[in-house]
Specification:
Its cofactor is Mn(2+); Mg(2+). GO terms for molecular function: ATP binding; metal ion binding; phosphoribosylamine-glycine ligase activity. InterPro entries: ATP-grasp, ATP_grasp_subdomain_1, PreATP-grasp_dom_sf, PRibGlycinamid_synth_ATP-grasp, PRibGlycinamide_synth, PRibGlycinamide_synth_C-dom, PRibGlycinamide_synth_C_sf, PRibGlycinamide_synth_CS. The protein is an alpha+beta fold and about 425 residues long. The chain has 4 domains: about 90 residues, Rossmann fold (3-Layer(aba) Sandwich), CATH 3.40.50; about 60 residues, Dna Ligase, domain 1; about 130 residues, ATP-grasp fold, B domain (D-amino Acid Aminotransferase, Chain A, domain 1, 2-Layer Sandwich), CATH 3.30.470.20; about 90 residues, Glycinamide Ribonucleotide Synthetase, Chain A, domain 4 (Alpha-Beta Complex). Helix content is about 30%, strand content about 25%. It is globular. The termini are far apart. Bound molecules: glycine. The site of glycine (GLY) has 7 residues, from loops.
Length: about 425
């Protein structure tokens, strides 16, 4: 099987490494990739948001399967273009990708499917902003305002704050730039990312993970695209996991089918485990980053065969997934000033170490690996338990040199020390 992966993050690096372990996969390509993926796959520089360009590359590479990593090409319909060209594609249609691309659509689907989620209102008129703010946040008995961009914002469109002025300023700046705003009630409780391979009404869950969205230790500072993740979740009772699959993901998948936009690809449920049970924070239409880096490190089943089966309507016939015992932890090394405008162009030393997955990296003409984005690397450690996996990841990340870079030191720590309960 020849597989073309679309994307350039550590998530795509992890996908490529897991695909390479599949004995049925004999050739890999990636577009646009990064300095790390170049060692795993043929690398092509195409505009991955342009369906025609991706189709042309898939034909040139004679791909049997195209796997689309990021949300932007999915929301723009690149998977539709690939399928229309007769090539199997892992990734939802443009219509189905609205589950991530339009939060108001996702809310509507959840309501119809009877799935618990935060109370919400859309604001598209600045004149309604203050009155709507009054119905949320501490003024309405919630600990904080949750202010989201209704569309795509790479994880950074969300502000959660108890400061009304900060909530108002974020909402006003989104409205000023023409983006509708979603105001939500705050969902309390530990968060879970559950990735499910879905084709129509067939749902195959992967191991649950938890990610860390704030930039600083102890969940301080602004939201980011994700600073680290671990899997599995020792504190999550198996019956809660089953309830999420049965009462959240399957009803949503069925609702998408009944609306005429069946989901085919990776459906990512982001949930809070509240005192009243699981409630959805968001759905995404693709693998999460950095959770994928941890989850795929424990996958023993052949990934290429799984994704091809989902892409060709054969998912229900697949054998149960096999996982390694133990735990995996992914820690993100970010560039100076991330999640603001990151410093780029610095030489990275130590990025060839085992467990290092590349994201914002490029190879300079003189051969040096340099930083080229905000999240630069993900370092994955595995071990018999979370403590061992954390030690493995932090051992490696401590040996990498990038001027001004930073990482969180507490990824998976509360779980390893038994401080999370539901
Ligand atoms: N881990 C957050 C995301 O992928 O959106």
């Amino acid at each position: 099987m020849r597989v073309l992966v679309i994307g350039s993050g550590a998530r795509e690096h992890a996908l490529l490494l897991a695909l390479r372990r599949d004995p049925e996969v004999d050739a890999l390509a990636v577009a646009p990739g990064n300095a790390g993926t170049a060692a795993v796959a043929e690398q092509y520089d195409v505009d991955v948001t342009a369906g025609d360009d991706v189709v042309a590359l898939a034909k040139r590479f004679a791909a049997d399967l195209v796997v689309i990593g990021p949300e932007v090409p999915l929301v723009l319909g690149v998977a539709d273009a690939v399928r229309a060209a007769g090539i199997a594609c892992f990734g939802p249609s443009r219509d189905a990708a609205r589950i991530e691309g339009a939060k108001s659509f996702a809310k509507d689907v959840m309501e119809a499917a009877g799935v618990r989620t935060a109370r919400s209102e859309i604001i598209d008129n600045p004149a309604r902003l203050d009155a709507t703010l009054d119905r949320f946040g501490p003024t309405a008995g919630d600990p904080a305002w949750v202010v989201k961009d209704d569309g795509l914002a790479a994880g950074k469109g969300v502000v959660v704050t108890a400061d009304r002025e900060a909530a108002r300023a974020h909402a006003a700046s989104l409205l000023d730039s023409g983006h509708p705003v979603l105001l939500e009630s705050f969902l309390d409780g530990p968060e879970v990312s559950l990735f499910c391979v879905v084709d129509g009404e067939t749902v195959v869950p992967l191991l649950p993970a938890q990610d860390f969205k704030r930039v600083g230790d102890g969940d301080t500072g602004p939201n980011t695209g994700g600073m680290g993740a671990y899997t599995p979740l020792p504190w999550l009772p198996p019956e809660v996991l089953t309830a999420i699959v049965e009462h959240v993901v399957k009803p949503v998948a069925a609702e998408m089918v009944s609306r005429g936009c069946p989901f085919s690809g990776l459906l990512y449920a982001g949930l809070a485990i509240t005192s009243r049970g699981p409630a959805v924070v968001e759905f995404n239409c693709r693998f999460g980053d950095p959770e994928t880096q941890a989850v795929l490190a424990l996958l023993d089943s052949p990934l290429g065969q799984l994704l091809l089966a989902a892409a060709t309507g054969d998912l229900a016939a697949q054998p149960p997934l096999q996982w390694s015992d133990g735990a995996a932890v992914a820690v993100v090394l970010a560039a100076e000033n991330y999640p603001g405008r990151p410093r780029v162009g610095d030489v990275i030393a130590g990025s060839e170490a085992p467990g290092v997955l590349h994201a914002g990296t490029a190879r300079r003409d003189d051969g040096a690996v340099v930083s080229s984005g905000g999240r630069v690397l993900s370092v994955v450690g595995t071990g018999a338990d979370l403590t061992a996996a954390r030690a493995a990841a932090y051992d490696v990340i401590g040996s990498i040199k990038l001027p001004g870079s930073h990482f969180r030191t507490d990824i998976g720590l509360d779980a390893a020390e038994g401080r999370i309960g539901v």
